[in-house]
Amino acid sequence: MRVLVGIYGVKIPKSPGTDYHEVLNRLSEERRNRTLRFSRKDDRIRSVIAEALIRTLFLREHKVDNESLRFTANRYGKPFLAAYPDYHYNLSHSGDYVLCAVDQQPIGIDIEEIKPIDLTIADRFFSGRENEEIKEIPEDRRIGYFYQLWTAKESYIKFRGKGLSMPLNSFSIRIDDNGIELSEKDGCPLKEPDCYFKAFHLSPQYKVTLCSENPNHPEEIQRIDGLELFKEFVEVSGGNYAAR
């Protein structure tokens, strides 16, 4: 199966546009119900973008019916396309953006909007070594470093597909000028890593990290306009029906 490997980012439009309801009707029943439960407009648009994005990326490359694309999840809640378990993707959203990473091998991605935060939260979720490193960072860079570390750890958990069953403090991440790598809890790099990390720049207000079994990462995030995504999805999904 051909996989259009890459990272795709959609900025949430201020207005959903004329195609929004047509797109909503072509998503899964579970997604439609979840979307309609949100009270905030931004949350509804974000929910629709998430599924429309992965469906569009898949339908670009594979001539199948949109209606045939059904989603399921592993025992820890990581979603995948039921009929295409070797098609690996992962979604993440924060603030104004929704991201989707696609690969031929297992993958995880996380985006976080940088906001003021009480850094003592790291005592609960990070390893001892990671906490020491945060305190060693100059004060004006600590918040940014915290979010870079957080997205790296989240991307690893999503790569593993084990969700909340894998505590954030059960492993360590090292970040330095040479990049990002998984470490033992004492901070020593693993001799034979089975995953590879890469940080991406989206905007100064966000941190993004990818974790993949594939060491050949995309060069950059491919940006897609939200309204253009809706328009393309209507075109590639075809027909006039709601997905089941």
Automatic annotation (TrEMBL):
This is Uncharacterized protein. InterPro entries: 4-PPantetheinyl_Trfase_dom (IPR008278), 4-PPantetheinyl_Trfase_dom_sf (IPR037143), AASDHPPT_N (IPR055066), P-Pant_transferase_sf (IPR050559), Ppantetheine-prot_Trfase_dom (IPR004568). Gene3D superfamilies: 4'-phosphopantetheinyl transferase domain (3.90.470.20). One of its GO terms (molecular function) is holo-[acyl-carrier-protein] synthase activity. Keywords: Antibiotic biosynthesis, Magnesium, Metal-binding, Transferase. One of its GO terms (cellular component) is cytosol. Residues 106-184 form the 4'-phosphopantetheinyl transferase domain. It holds the Pfam family AASDHPPT_N. PANTHER family: L-AMINOADIPATE-SEMIALDEHYDE DEHYDROGENASE-PHOSPHOPANTETHEINYL TRANSFERASE (PTHR12215:SF10), PHOSPHOPANTETHEINE TRANSFERASE (PTHR12215). Its cofactor is Mg(2+). One of its GO terms (biological process) is fatty acid biosynthetic process. It comes from Paenibacillus durus.
